[in-house]
Structure formats: C-alpha cells, structure tokens
Amino acid sequence: MAKRHTMRPGDWESIFGRLQELVLANSGEDDFEEIFKLIVAKLYSEIRPIKGMEFKTYSSAQKTAETVNTLLAQANETWKGVFLTSPHSRLTPEHLG
User: Fold this and answer.
1) Rounded distance between C-alpha atoms, residue 22 and residue 43, angstroms
2) What pLDDT score was predicted for residue 6?
3) More confident residue, 32 or 71
C-alpha cells in the first residue's frame, strides 16, 4: 500500500492518520469505533499483563485477531460500562495481522 500519511513521533494526528491508513484501509468499518477498540485492548494489555496475551502482531493473522478479541473481552469484564455491548473487533484478521 502506498504511504499517504507520514507518521511524525509525538504528533497524535499523524499517528492516527497512519493507523487509519494501515489498519482500516478497505475494511468498511467505523474508523473511530475500531481504533477505540484497539486502544482499549492495548491499554488493557499494558496495565494487566498476562503471559501469552501481549498486544502485538503474531506470526498468524488469526492469532493476532484472537488475542485482540480476548483482550477486549477481558477489558470489558474489568472496565464495566466502557462498551455498551460485548466488544469484538469487526476488522478481519488480515487487517489486524
């Protein structure tokens, strides 16, 4: 994919622009909602580290998607009220991997 946005360290607008380009390109999903889910999963993995459940890209896109969704489910249990319904990333494993 051609780079349209240049990520500048410390510049949140450029970071989110690049994230949108890389992760959400052609997904058809709501940008804000899916980025919010990824941020929640990342925060949960940073605050409550669980061995084998790190927020990272795994060798398999399916494993990456499963991990993100497990982290979301655990965050939802811990942080009641953040999501109205049980969260599940609607991005395909290929978008997350």
Assistant:
1) 20
2) 66
3) 71
